[in-house]
Amino acid sequence: MQIHSFTRFLAFPFIVAAGYVMYQNAIDYYFSEAHSWILLPLIVILVGLYILSPQIDFWWLQKFPIRIDSRIKSWLQERSSFYQGLSETERVKFEKRLSLFMRAKEFSLMSPEKMEMPEDMKAIIATNAVQMSFHQDNFLLSGYDRIVAYPHPFPTPYYKHLHSVETEEVDGVILLCIDYVVHGMTVVDEYNIALHAFAEAYLEKSKREDEVHVSDTDAALLPEISGIPMDKILKTIGFDHVNLVLVAIHHYLKYPNQFLTKLPVLCGQIKALLADRKN
Predict the structure, then answer these.
(1) DSSP 72-130
(2) pTM (2 d.p.)
(3) For residues 100 and 140, is the Cβ–Cβ distance under 8 A?
(4) How far apart are CA 223 and CA 251, in angstroms?
(5) 106-109 β-sheet, strand order
(6) CB 262 within 8 A of CB 227
């Protein structure tokens, strides 16, 4: 049996005890006189467990991660070239991190039906974050706690026009068009906006963008590596300009062999950027 919430498991005996004390207080005057004080520490414990539940549950899941669904694992084996290239030990690490990421973030699906986001959709999005941060200890992109998926391009208070991807550092939210995510992951010459978004979130939090230098020569080779013209990338994301460092990181992650062949120096810079700093 896998315990999804260790806090609920811990809280159960205290809830039973509190219920018993309240019941006895209601039917037995002498019990109430002698033992009603017991209710206070029980309530304090339950409130403490409620407040600390995210930290407790995450600690538990790090020790005993929830196994990913077999359908998600099959999808990784069939669709994720990054996962396919991992050793068995690395695949276990990837699956554990994917499970933790899916439970550490609040996923929302903006649809008229007000549906909860399905687990496989969460996994499709989270796979990109886990790939990008695979060589980092802090793989959860702390500070970005909410991920919102739209079925189509969307406007926001920050950007009134229709676009497909946005990261909001102040609000700690990443916004994506899910159709564009799936298309970018499954079609070779399409831009993956999820890799773009998580790379942008990482740069915003790490403040390490100056470690990567994309020259004019490098920029000219990016379309050759991916088969994606720059104007197509702009049309995909819905903006009239783009940070070339984000495009370079995207291509490094999606087209690793071509990137290494064409841009070995830039490849080394991005490899170092996406790893923990060495002291």
Answers:
(1) HHHHHHHH-HHHHTS-HHHHHHHHHHHHHHHHHSEEEE--TT-PPPPHHHHHHHHHHHH
(2) 0.80
(3) yes
(4) 9
(5) 106-109, 146-150, 173-177, 165-168
(6) no
pLDDT for 206-235, tens place per residue? 999 999 999 999 999 999 999 999 999 999
37-46 residue pLDDT tens: 777 888 888 8
- What span, in angstroms and rounded, lies between the C-alpha atoms of 236 and 193? 8
Is-contact 244 214, C-beta < 8 A?
Answer: yes
Helix (H, G, I), strand (E, B) or coil at 140: coil
Q: Would you say the C-alpha torsion 275, 227, 127, 169 has a positive or negative sign?
A: positive
Orientation of helix 244-254 relative to helix 119-132, angle to 10°: 100
How many other β-carbons are positioned within 10 Å of the β-carbon of residue 191? 25
Give the amino acid at 276.
D
Nearest to 131 by CA among 77, 180, 194, 191: 194
* Pair 145, 174: CB distance under 8 Å: no
User: What tokens were used for 43?
Assistant: 């309530």
Instruction: State pLDDT tens for residues 58-107.
Output: 666 666 676 778 899 999 998 899 999 999 999 999 999 999 899 889 99
Closest by Cα among 191, 193, 192 to 223: 191
Q: How far is 189 from 228, CA to CA, in rounded Å?
A: 6
